[in-house]
Amino acid sequence: MLRYIGRRLALLVLVLLGIATITFFVAYLIPADPAKAAAGPNAGPAQVASIRHEMGLDRPLLVQYEVFITHLLQGNLGISILTQRPVRDMLADYLPPTIELVLVALLIDIVIGVPIGVLMAVRSGGLTDGLSRLITSLGVGLPVFWVGLMLQLVFYGRLSWLPASGQLGIFTTAPPKVTGMYLVDALIARQPDVFWDAFQHIIAPAFTLALGLLAVTARLTRAGMLEALGQEYVRTARGKGLKRGEVVFKHALRNALLPTITMLGLQSGFLISGTVLVESVFSWGGLGNLLYTALQQADFPVIIGVTLVGALTFVLANLLVDVLYVVFDPRIRFS
Question: Do the beta carbons of residue 305 and residue 87 sit within 8 Å?
Fold first, then answer.
């Protein structure tokens, strides 16, 4: 397994270089002038030309690409046009809140979606199955931004149960930075009041992000469970007189989860890009907000940096899925 993981990590470098190349050329096809954006709306032609020269944008495109790849291989993602900060430092600041949001969304998806899928399969064809399928179908079709706004309207505007936006309340001091994720850092610092405040702020955006994925998880789990419950080993377990819960959860569910695990691995990478809308609605200070601002300002180094982070997340998530296959199905081995 270790040799397999090593080969996959080596291929990861080539994948990231390929994605970086595509993103570089696509970004520079956008009809926007980064030098004009950096100079500001009141800058004259001479000032814009001077900034364009300083940024190296007056060089041939292939020369710019060579410089970009050279810097990338050295771990240098460039300087933000808008803030003049190293992109690497900006990603280090904005990535932890997004990781925290995605992890909580995945947790919500697993805790709710898998049991619903099991219930739908066990009671297949009944009223519970029909209602669950109807609800999950609605979950897939609802727009993310609409769900976020409705949650704000109900749980903040009407019930006052949850805050409207942000990561912490205005009167709450952030915990000492260790990971950059407030929930984790509050636990490390043993600050339960900060943890509770951060938890209240993350529930609505995480549920909004998880809703579409939750519906798919429930349906995949249902399909896998229906297939597993019809297998010979499940009938044998029932014939031995095992309890229904033991047959369902110990024998059937473990094999039924393989398609669900595959989907979670694929979707975890897409969740990074899906945070753009969610973070905009809830004013969440993560990569989504950073990318949204960068697209507005034609901040190409930041756009490329965020894209590479999304690609890295996607590849690593799929590698983790391959490893989990062996855990859930010992029959699978790596050649």
Answer: yes
How many C-beta neighbours within 10 Å does residue 318 have? 15
Quote the tokens at residue 82. 């808008």
Q: Residue 267 pLDDT > 80, yes or no?
A: no
Quote the number of domains for the chain: 2
pLDDT, tens digit, 9 for 90 and up, residues 300-330? 888 888 888 887 887 777 777 777 766 666 6
Given a contact cutoff of 8 angstroms between Cβ atoms, the answer to whether 185 and 177 are in contact is yes
pTM over 0.90: no
**Could you tell me if 68 and 205 lie in one domain?**
no
Contact 297/37 with Cβ under 8 angstroms? yes
Domain-located, residue 309: yes
Q: 26: domain range?
A: 2-73
Query: Is residue 90 in some structural domain?
Result: no
Q: What CA–CA distance (Å, rounded) separates 190 from 22?
A: 45
- Whether 164 and 152 have beta carbons less than 8 Å apart is answered as yes
Judgement on whether residues 214 and 307 belong to the same structural domain of the protein = yes
Query: Which tens digits make up the pLDDT trace of 181-207?
Result: 999 999 999 999 999 999 999 999 999
How far is it, in rounded angstroms, from Cα 229 to Cα 224?
Answer: 9
Single-letter code of the amino acid located at 223? A
Name the phi and psi angles at 76, rounded to 5. -100, 115
In whole angstroms, how large is the CA radius of gyration of the chain? 24
**333 within domain boundaries:** no
**What is the number of alpha carbons within 13 Å of residue 219 lying toward its C-beta?**
17
Q: Which of 38, 73, 108 is the C-terminal boundary of a domain? A: 73
